[in-house]
Amino acid sequence: MRFAVTELPEEGRNASEVLEDLAAAKVDDRDWRGGRVFSLVYSAGDAVHDLHGEALRLYSAENGLNVLAFPSIGRLSHDLVGWTSSLLGGDETGATGYLTSGGTESLLQAVKVARDAGRARGINRPRIVAARSAHAAFTKAAELFDVELVRVDVDDRFRIDLEQAAAAIDASTIMLIGSAPSYPHGVIDPISELGQLALDHGLLLHVDACLGGLLLPWLVEAGHVNVPFDLTVPGVTSISADLHKYGYASKGVSVILYNDADLARHQLFVTSDWMGGFYASTVMAGTRPAGPVAAAWATMQHLGRTGYRRLAEETWVAARRLIDGVGTIDGLRVLGDPDMTVLTIAADDGRGIDVFAVADRLAEVGGWYLDRQTDPDALHLTVHAGSAAAVEPFLEDLATVVAGIGDERSSDRSAPYATDR
Question: What CATH number belongs to 56-299?
Answer without folding.
Answer: 3.40.640.10
